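Appendix B, Record 12. Input sequence as logged:
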Amino acid sequence: MHDEYKTINEKKQRTYADTSFVEPIIPFRNADPWLRKLVGFEFEPQKTESDSRRAEGFEFKHDFNKWLASKWSFRTQTLTISENYRVNALDWDLEDGVHLVTQLIDPITREISEQPKHLYLLFLYRKSGDWVDANCILKVKEFIKHLELMPACPIETILLRATGMEENNWEHMEKLSYLKEEKATTERLGRVYRYAWGCTDTSWLDLQGKPYLKAKFNPRDSICLRSQH
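Logged structural output:
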């Protein structure tokens, strides 16, 4: 009985390469407003990430991340946008200075999900100082194609949004040290994604009331299709 309890307890405490994130430290978070004003504290967005790249040799919670990590390394990453809001995601190094930030979501609630069904491509960027004129669009296409080859792939859809530089306040994204591209407008990105990745509209709507895009994705061995037979 004691051994059984120990096993259960160990499982609860287990950490995985793809779900363990560095906790951000926010000074004066719950301090008196007067004290914050006295010391001149103003919150600034911050980024925290795993201290080393994680790859195939680690223990994973999700098999699809382990499959991807056999080809690319990643870091777990937290972007703290405000004192009460932060985003946890995986930052994949697709090589040549191209990075792809991903997370699992529930497209109905728009919240992060524990279920490996809907993979959300959150942000594609060129890293300043590392980018060597590589084609970001082709890098992501290779990423999708590799996931299609996974045996017993649990991912059912790959979702994304075409969000141009003109749409949002990108202050928190500055922490990623990305190279800006002013030509990357929402309209232009939408056209490129539809052409290059076969994207189509879904019935799921984002916070702005616009349809999420779904990339063309045909896994060779889908768990979802298995269950239908």
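The first strand starts at residue 46 and ends at 49.
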